[in-house]
Amino acid sequence: MILFIPERKQCEHCHEKFNKLDNLIEHLKNVHHQSVSKCHNCGKEFLHEKDRLHHVREENERKADARRHSKTGMK
Ligand SMILES: [Zn+2]
Ligand SMILES: [Zn+2]
């Protein structure tokens, strides 16, 4: 499986580096008051709207998949 989202864990404003993306997001929110995109399903936060959309699409696919597996014998 190929992941298209590059893990950028450096602040674009002050170039501070972070070990975790979560920490970078917290930093951007608290220090630079940058708005982030939030998943309405699980509350996960994303730096860019396209990252959130990608995540939501994967979530929906997983949900659809679970439905397919639980309803066997359906044609
Ligand atoms: Zn910063
Ligand atoms: Zn989610």
Model description:
The chain has 75 residues and is mostly helical. The chain has a domain at 21-69: Double Stranded RNA Binding Domain (2-Layer Sandwich). Helix content is 43%, strand content 5%. It is built from two helices and two strands; from the N terminus they run αββα. It has a two-stranded antiparallel sheet with strand order 1-2. The longest helix has 22 residues, at 49-70. The radius of gyration is 16 Å and the shape is elongated. The two termini are 29 Å apart. The mean pLDDT is 87. One zinc ion (ZN) binds next to loops.
Give a brief rundown of this model:
By secondary structure, the chain is mainly α. 43% of the residues lie in helices and 5% in strands.
Features:
single chain; 75 residues; mainly alpha; Double Stranded RNA Binding Domain; 2 helices; 43% helix; elongated; binds zinc ion
CATH class of the domain at 21-69: Alpha Beta
CATH topology of the domain at 21-69: Double Stranded RNA Binding Domain
Radius of gyration: 16 Å
What's the rounded overall pLDDT mean? 87
Number of helical regions: 2
Shape: elongated
Structural class: mainly alpha
Low-confidence stretches: none
Secondary structure: number of strands: 2
Order of helices and strands: HEEH
Helical proportion, percent range? 40-55%
Bound molecules: zinc ion
